């Protein structure tokens, strides 16, 4: 899974980061992103696209990635800002914020997905878009775990603040339970109003 990193280095880049986001689809909560620079060839047994890993495996990998990375950064964009712009722009902003948070700064980014420009925001760092990058690049896979775990942990905090919605069960995604609670209690301050068209 080092093919893309090696190709970027052959192209003259010395600090290549992977970047991914988590939480584009939920009805509530922020969108998170992470960026990671890994030492070439570092081993992280069990690392894969965060969606393919159990919560337990993601939690176990989280500190290992942080420990072995040359640099890592996590950022988020609020539900309010998602509503004010659009989810693509918010995703890209979260990713750029995560990239900007890296020290040392990367000179190239491997980014999961196929879009790098939204209505109100575009990625600024030199980058390559990789569809299903979290399955193809070890750096993106590492970023996907940091983003997913960070967002899930934040949603557990929101579950304590707004216990009526069951965030601990669905992390803000549009499950049957979530829609039932939304109809019963109405949206909270952490819901994305622009996502609630079905209510």
Features of the shown structure:
199 residues, alpha/beta, five-stranded mixed sheet, 8 helices, globular
Walkthrough of the structure:
- With 199 residues, this protein is α/β, with parallel strands linked by helices.
- Helix content is 42%, strand content 15%.
- The protein is built from eight helices and five strands, in the order αββαβααββαααα.
- The protein has helices at 3-10, 55-68, 79-84, 87-100, 133-136, 138-161, 167-170, 176-185, and strands spanning 16-22, 31-37, 71-77, 108-112, 127-130.
- The longest helix has 24 residues, at 138-161.
- The radius of gyration is 17 Å and the shape is globular.
- The model has no long low-confidence stretch (mean pLDDT 96).
Instruction: Please give the order of strands in the largest beta sheet.
Output: 3-2-1-4-5
Helical amount among residues, as a percent range?
40-55%
Radius of gyration: 17 Å
Oligomer: single chain
Separation of termini?
43 Å
Low-confidence stretches: none
> In what range is the share of β-strand residues?
15-25%
Short summary:
It contains eight helices and five strands; from the N terminus they run H-E-E-H-E-H-H-E-E-H-H-H-H. It has 199 residues and is an alpha/beta fold.
């Amino acid at each position: 899974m080092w093919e893309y990193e090696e190709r970027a280095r052959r192209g003259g880049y010395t600090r290549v980061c992977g970047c991914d986001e988590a939480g584009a689809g939920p009805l509530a909560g922020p969108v998170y992103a992470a960026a990671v620079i890994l030492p070439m060839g570092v081993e992280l047994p069990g690392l894969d696209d965060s969606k393919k890993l159990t919560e337990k495996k993601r939690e176990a990998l989280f500190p290992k990635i942080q420990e072995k990375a040359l640099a890592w950064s996590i950022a988020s964009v609020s539900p309010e800002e998602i509503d004010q712009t659009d989810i693509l722009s918010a995703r890209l902003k979260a990713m750029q914020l995560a990239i900007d948070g890296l020290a040392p700064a990367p000179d190239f980014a491997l980014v999961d997905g196929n879009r790098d420009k939204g209505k109100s925001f575009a990625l600024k760092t030199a980058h390559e878009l990789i569809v299903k990058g979290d399955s193809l690049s070890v750096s993106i896979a590492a970023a996907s775990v940091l983003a997913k775990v960070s967002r899930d942990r934040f949603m557990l905090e929101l579950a304590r603040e707004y216990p009526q919605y069951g965030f601990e069960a669905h992390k803000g995604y549009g499950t049957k339970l979530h829609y039932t609670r939304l109809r019963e209690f109405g949206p909270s301050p952490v819901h994305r109003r622009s996502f609630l068209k079905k209510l």
